[in-house]
Amino acid sequence: MRILLTCPPMLRQAERFRPRFAELGYELFTPDVPQVLPEAELIELVPQFDGWIIGDDPATAAVFEAGQAGRLKAAVKWGVGVDNVDFAACKRLGIPIANTPGMFGGEVADMAVGYVIALARETFAVNAGIRAGQWPKPSGISLAGKTVGLAGFGDIGRNTARRLLASDMHIVAYDPFFRPAPGLEAVEPAVWPERIEEADFLVFTCALTPENRHMLGERELARVKPGVRVVNVARGPLIDEAALAAALADGRVASAALDVFEVEPLPATSPLRDFDQCLFGSHNGSNTIDAVIRTSERAIELLDGFLREAQRSAEA
Fold it and tell me: What is the mean pLDDT of residues 26-38?
């Protein structure tokens, strides 16, 4: 059986996993995927394979319908985010599918806290200044005593909260499924955007849903504390980038660290590029060697289970 792999972090370590696929009896195909493959290309490609490990590709109903008309028997979404995958279509078409939650909450949280520190102490400006032959000494802000508005209190959010509490910060968490967690009793739940005016930092770690698209937009930014700092390690469309650019221009937002964007890679024409106080990532928050190995092994295990069950059903 043939397996299609389109997840960039796993693709970059594909040779590490190729022997495991071969041991299980699978032939692995690894196309060049900078971030995602377009839907039209997937419609042509997916039907040629029995299994598919999905990255952030547009795994739409049309893609799965084409896959089912061909060889596709099962799929796994690498990682926790599933906003790009039509799970309802898979259910309708009888294609087994799962994601791999709980694999890299600590790694993404490390990135989130790194961004918080970078914005607080303006390390990006120091780096740029020294590279330009200067010796800048910006006066940043201390973390202790500051308030974080944390959007999302799942695995990544809880790991982020744990690290921020260790820095003596106050945390207001926004999550419709909020549950108290051991050791995180100091985290105060709220309904977005209640208490947004209190936040010195807004940190986004939540999943993207139709309901929270552009949850940080013009109306919310009109309410923020002047000089708030924004961090997004979740999904780009959670933030209205045009509204964020306007808030950066008038100083309501002091700075922003964005690992994700509404359109990826970040377009050359994005107004966010005009602001030196923006720190950019490449949707890479989960990408450590350790986390990729852990998550990829889980994805292989899940896909192998689905395919073997499909084979048993076909032989019955």
Answer: 95
Catalytic residue among 162, 235, 252, 298: 235
- Look up the domain containing 192 and give its range: 105-280
pTM value? Answer: 0.92
One-letter amino acid at 263 equals V
Options 41, 198, 264, 297, the catalytic residue? 264
Do residues 119 and 246 share a domain?
A: yes
Do 253 and 226 sit in the same domain of this protein?
yes
The answer to whether the CB of 239 falls within 8 A of the CB of 221 is no
Mean pLDDT of the chain: 97
Q: Are residues 193 and 77 in the same domain?
A: no
For residue 262, the domain's CATH number is 3.40.50.720
- DSSP state for residue 59 in the 8-state scheme: B
Give yes or no: 264 in active site: yes
Of 284, 266, 265, which Cα lies nearest the Cα of 275?
A: 266
Task: Give tens-digit pLDDT for 110-167.
Answer: 999 999 999 999 999 999 999 999 999 999 999 999 999 999 999 999 999 999 999 9
d(CA 296, CA 70): 25
- Residue 65, SS3 per DSSP: helix
3-state secondary structure (DSSP) of residue 253: strand
Please tell me whether residues 47 and 193 are part of one structural domain: no
Domain shared by 78 and 138, yes or no: no
Regarding whether 230 and 96 lie in a shared domain, the answer is: no
Active site residue 235: yes
Instruction: Indicate if 94 and 112 belong to the same structural domain.
Output: no
Q: What pLDDT digit, counting tens, does each position of 222-260 carry?
A: 999 999 999 999 999 999 999 999 999 999 999 999 999
30 lies in the same domain as 115:
no
Tell me what pLDDT residue 34 has: 86
| Residues 251, 273 contacting (CB under 8 angstroms) | no
Band of pLDDT at residue 169, cut at 50, 70 and 90: very high
- Six-digit token string for 43: 């419609």
Catalytic pick among 170, 229, 252, 283? 283
